[in-house]
Design a protein that fits this description.
- The protein is α+β, with helices and mostly antiparallel strands.
- It has 2 domains: 93 residues, Ribosomal Protein L25, Chain P; 86 residues, RNA Polymerase Alpha Subunit, Chain A, domain 2, CATH 2.170.120.
- The chain has 5 helices and 13 strands.
- The strands form 3 sheets. It has a 6-stranded mixed β-barrel.
- The C terminus is likely disordered.
Amino acid sequence: MAETTLIAETGRETGSRSSRRLRREGKIPGVLYGRDVGPYALHVDAKALRTALQGEAGLNALLRLEVDGIFYTAMAKDIQRHPVKGTAIHIDFQVTDPDKPVTVEVPLTLTGHASHLQMAGGIVDQQLFSVTVVALPGSIPHSLELDITSLPAGGALRVADINVPPGVEVENDPDALVVAGMVPKGVRDAGAEEGEGGAEPGGGAEAGTSGSDSSDR
């Protein structure tokens, strides 16, 4: 995973008033910490931060953070967002050792085409959208894939079915449900009615017998 350079400035005043002023100026307040490092109160340009975290690696991007002329390898560990706008309002950077594993959240991507499920009128019901993985910072996958081609109606695929590359360990329960092949109730009912319709000849015979008995009376 390539490092993205991001420039940070220290010396900011702490407190909500100072943070609001920085955000009005297009800057995001934050903190840098790590083993034998900081914590340092700092701020970064909001636009540069969005650019750094909008690559393929997303929030798990490995950053080359320049702080007062000193470069640190870091990752964004926690981003606080505005409750309505969803924009970043504070960010925590953690100094990262490229040679030591880290624990991060990685999104799940469904691949393939569940043709058997769709032929049965079913739908893919995704229950899990990300998993927790442990890997070296440079080996963190952009996403993990799960092939749903074999997903049948009424079936399920679980964490153990995810395609995991070498050097990556998934911490979630292997039996945790990821996707289910759901058949809507209306489709099931329609199928049941068709089955009942197939038994109508037998039912007609019974009705005819009943009518014969009635005429005998």
